[in-house]
Write a structure and sequence with these properties.
four-stranded antiparallel beta sheet; Alpha-Beta Plaits; 101 residues; 4 helices
């Protein structure tokens, strides 16, 4: 089985719809991610969307990918992914938080 066949035949047991608003920077970055390319839509020159059916078991994986896009992307759904992103951001904040004495 080729990588392309594997992506298209990947079993989704617990489906969730991933909806992400993207600016042009995030859109261009997502174009470089093979398994996201076909799920990108252009709304206008500066606004794009990513809509994809994913398995809930993939939430940690997508959390890492979308975290890299920073403020160039906003996850709308699923809420569990939004919650994961918030936890990761808070962990980063705690890691770099400078306490004043």
């Amino acid at each position: 089985m080729s990588l392309k066949e594997w992506f298209y035949n990947y079993p989704i047991i617990n489906p969730a719809i991933l909806i992400v608003q993207l600016n042009k920077i995030a859109y261009l970055e997502c174009l470089d991610i093979y398994f996201l390319q076909n799920d990108l839509k252009c709304v206008n020159d500066n606004y794009y969307t990513l809509e994809k059916t994913i398995d809930l078991s993939e939430i940690p994986f997508y959390t890492k990918i979308l975290l890299k896009l920073g403020t160039n992307a906003k996850v709308i759904e699923p809420s569990v992914l939004v919650d994961n992103l918030k936890r990761e951001i808070m962990s980063l904040h705690k890691l770099y938080d400078i306490k004043s004495n």
